[in-house]
Amino acid sequence: MDTRQRYRTYADRIAPVSPAYAAWARSVDDDLVALLDELPATQRQPELLFAVARRLGADPTDVASLRTLGREARPALVAALTTATVQANDPRRLAPVVPVLAALSAASDRPIGLLDVGAAAGLCSIPDRVTLDHRQPDGPAGAPGSLVRVHTAVAGPAVHLVADVTGTPPEPAASPIRIGARVALDPEPIDPAAPGALERLVEAVPPEATDRTALMAEALRATLVAPPVRIRGRVPEDLDRALDALPDDCEPVVLTTGTLVYVPGAGRQRLVDRLRERRVRWVALERTGILAGVAATLPADVEAADPDAFATLSLDGRALAVSDAFGTRVRWFGRALG
């Protein structure tokens, strides 16, 4: 898929929730396409361009402002895109992840030592601070679907997530996830206590998505209670250094949520290989198809083009479920967690 088609496809997908971002994506002209094509493929993501553009002063409610920025501030835009990462790490992505981490926690006599890769400020480093409900399909005659509480957060600041589920979801957790240590690995980690941290995190969030911004603010408050140890680095290069920062009395678990699309393909495979060599557990919610080994374990009827199969949830490289981009609709395959 070339750059222009990539942005058209993104526009079609985002239009129902963000007319502003859809208009920006459709406004990408020949000059912007040429600018983007100078960059590595991992740096051409629409969310990345839009976040950097907003950081440089472009207004997403002004459709012409993106082209203007590319024309009038081209060197600054190219320089920023070259090293930038999307740092939202939407906490909604924890909805598919929490049942898996709860199962790992219950099966171990040690608390989890969580390594959150691409963590930004650590909004996905707080699975123990998520109260999660599963909403089953609608009942007869359009009756609302029933809610099942599958995880109750530890005491203190927390977030409440609801996921619409189909298939065979996991059984509710008997107790909260036990986290003994948290490490956040990111090329540009954000201190959740720093002034402007939330503003930086929501740069990639469409301006219409005020509910997402509010949820991220709640997650940031929860993160402040138990902030991760921040390590500046990338995968696979800095994986070992980050894992070695976890205490020996914890069960190491690596978490990636929407991160590996920004890692070149060869780097993704080196990461997978190293995780196997180190024999650490790995929970991933990543775009369907970008991890060949995981894709090979999907049921035959899963279509990557299906919006409800945009991401694949996996444990140690084995697919457990598919979901929409943010984990709000999850189809579980009924496979054992562990």
UniProtKB/TrEMBL annotation:
The lineage of its organism: Bacteria, Bacillati, Actinomycetota, Actinomycetes, Micrococcales. This is DUF2332 domain-containing protein. It comes from the Bacteria. Pfam families: DUF2332 (PF10094). InterPro entries: UCP012608.
